[in-house]
Amino acid sequence: MTTPAAAHLEIEVKARVADLAPLRAALAARAAAQEQPRLLEVNLRFDTPAAMLAQRGEILRLRRSRDVRLTHKRPAQPAGELLGRPEVEVVVEDFEATREVLERSGFVVVVRYEKYRALYALGTVQVALDELPFGEFVELEGPSAQALQGAARELGLPWSQVFQGSYLSIFGWLRAHYGLTARNLTFAEFAGIELADLGLPQSAAEIAHR
Asked: CATH for 6-208, among 3.40.462.10, 3.90.480.20, 2.40.320.10, 3.40.50.720?
């Protein structure tokens, strides 16, 4: 069983933070509605064996958290001051069955990545408090750059510190910079790894504009 697909233009920014606690306090002070409690999120990125989707700048992702969602993202396009990605997403019933359908259709899992995520609604902006194997981040997603800038101000996030780019791009930078052997962005593969200052968000901003 699936729900109807929802298509929209995804406009989002991220910022690395030392501690999520001040953001939780700021959200509570503004009576932001919690849409999802802190949950482990498991993501599988798919592509063809010849990496055709990556070559076209497209993303095919299967995600399991409070529900299971299959998402396709097209290449980024200008959205005012920022970039946005047209995406279509559908809620599906079974994570493993959907994975099998994709693999039988010729797609392969190219990377698995995990994070703990809590979601809040601050006006028209969705705020994600993310805990990844390499640090803590906040992600803002909304209808426009202006809406995201307003949310950043409310939360005390300097706009100069936000960047556009994926966590997998950061993972790739870390692998190259530190010579990490982890093939997936999972807590198990990062167990025991002690990372120095990551040089973020500057490095992430550079990655986003390559």
From this structure: 2.40.320.10
pLDDT at 7 over 60: yes
Q: Say what the pTM is.
A: 0.91
Q: Which long-range contacts (CB under 8 A, 24 or more apart) does 60-67 make?
A: 60/102, 60/107, 62/95, 62/98, 62/99, 62/102, 64/95, 65/36, 65/39, 65/40, 65/41, 65/117, 66/36, 66/39, 67/91
| The predicted structure's pLDDT at residue 193 | 86
Check residue 163 and report its DSSP letter.
Answer: B
- Higher pLDDT: 128 or 197? It is 128
